[in-house]
């Protein structure tokens, strides 16, 4: 969706908005591409100005759009981001958008990792079924699947969201839940209990994102806590997407999951230092530079169990 992000009120007293780009999986795709991964995106756009802007964006970012459908039947969605003392808030206009009308018959096949999110399934029944179909195709072709919960209460109630997401995760290799999400979806608050829950569903790797408390990664064999990278944050929009895209890019590059999660934690933190979902997404050079400085300064030992 085309994004309009609220900026601080200027000296003239006028409220301005910065035009940008949103959509959690698109953000993650761009984050992965900026880390050097070969990325393609699957969605539908209207044949309108916002759709044209996205096609130009993905071309600039090196994201393959061969599987992006264009239609004159539906428009591309838009949304607004506002900020206050409680954080950032979203106002979406996507009902009936081209992406929400994506169907099972539109699903292509070609990937090493398929990445989807709860939003991908929450925007419509058609899109929900299309994601299940894509996961089925991926599994049948030996393609790993990564799933980010990214729960949005305005899209669906917790019982349905929980049932759908957890059914999808039964076929997932990498589960990428956020702690705020899973507290609603599962009722669990203890991080170890959350990891136990998601490992039982079937994923081989669970990466629990806990915001400023860092990341808690688990496999069947071991668990490790990674601290958050310290930054002065101005806008957390897209931070989780930056983490997911960067983590998967590093996994594709051959990193062990712990190293990939540490790298992605830095990328997510850097993404909070600017406004909007896409513009602040860091390059691989920026992440590696920050990671080197952080390691050199001594970020504290990882906690293992």
Topology of this protein?
Elements (H helix, E strand, L loop, with lengths): L1 E5 L10 E5 L2 H11 L4 E2 L2 E4 L2 H13 L1 E2 L3 E4 L6 E7 L2 E7 L19 E5 H5 L2 H16 L3 E5 L9 H12 L4 E3 L2 H8 L4 H11 L3 E5 L5 E4 L4 E4 L12 H14 L4 H14 L13 H14 L5 E2 L1
Parallel strand pairs: 1-7, 3-5, 4-6, 9-10, 10-11, 11-12
Antiparallel strand pairs: 1-2, 7-8, 12-13, 13-14, 14-15
Describe this structure in words.
- The chain is of the alpha/beta class.
- The chain has a domain at 24-43 and 108-296: Ribokinase (UDP-N-acetylmuramoyl-L-alanine:D-glutamate ligase).
- Helices cover 39% and strands 21% of the residues.
- The strands form four sheets. A seven-stranded mixed sheet has the order 9-10-11-12-13-14-15, with helices on both faces.
- It is globular, with a radius of gyration of 18 Å.
Task: Provide keyphrases for this structure.
single chain, 305 residues, alpha/beta, UDP-N-acetylmuramoyl-L-alanine:D-glutamate ligase, 7-stranded mixed sheet, 4-stranded mixed sheet, 10 helices, 21% strand
């Amino acid at each position: 969706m085309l994004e309009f992000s609220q900026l601080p009120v200027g000296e003239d007293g006028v409220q301005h908005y910065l035009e940008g780009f949103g959509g959690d999986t698109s953000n993650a795709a761009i984050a992965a591409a900026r880390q050097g991964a070969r990325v393609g995106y699957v969605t539908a756009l209207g044949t309108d100005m916002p759709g044209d802007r996205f096609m130009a964006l993905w071309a600039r970012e090196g994201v393959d759009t061969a599987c992006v459908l264009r239609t004159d039947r539906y428009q591309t969605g838009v949304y607004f981001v506002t900020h206050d003392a409680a954080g950032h808030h979203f106002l979406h206009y996507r009902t009936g958008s081209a992406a929400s009308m994506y169907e099972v018959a539109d699903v292509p096949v070609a990937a090493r990792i398929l990445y989807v999110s709860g939003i991908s399934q929450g925007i419509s029944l058609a899109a929900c079924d299309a994601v299940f179909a894509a996961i089925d195709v991926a599994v049948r072709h030996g393609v790993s699947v990564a799933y980010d919960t990214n729960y949005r209460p305005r899209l669906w109630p917790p019982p349905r969201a929980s049932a759908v997401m957890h059914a999808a995760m039964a076929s997932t290799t990498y589960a990428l839940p956020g702690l705020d999400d899973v507290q609603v979806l599962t009722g669990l608050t203890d991080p170890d209990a959350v990891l136990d829950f998601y490992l039982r569903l079937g994923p081989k790797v669970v990466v629990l994102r806990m915001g400023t408390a860092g990341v808690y990664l688990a496999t069947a064999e071991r668990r490790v806590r990674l601290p958050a990278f310290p930054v002065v944050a101005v806008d957390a929009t897209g931070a989780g997407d930056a983490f997911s895209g960067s983590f998967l890019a590093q996994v594709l590059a051959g990193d062990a999951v712990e190293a990939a999660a540490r790298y992605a934690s830095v990328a997510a933190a850097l993404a909070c230092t600017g406004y909007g979902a896409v513009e602040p997404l860091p390059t691989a050079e920026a992440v590696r530079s920050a990671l080197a400085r952080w390691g050199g300064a001594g970020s504290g030992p990882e906690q293992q169990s």
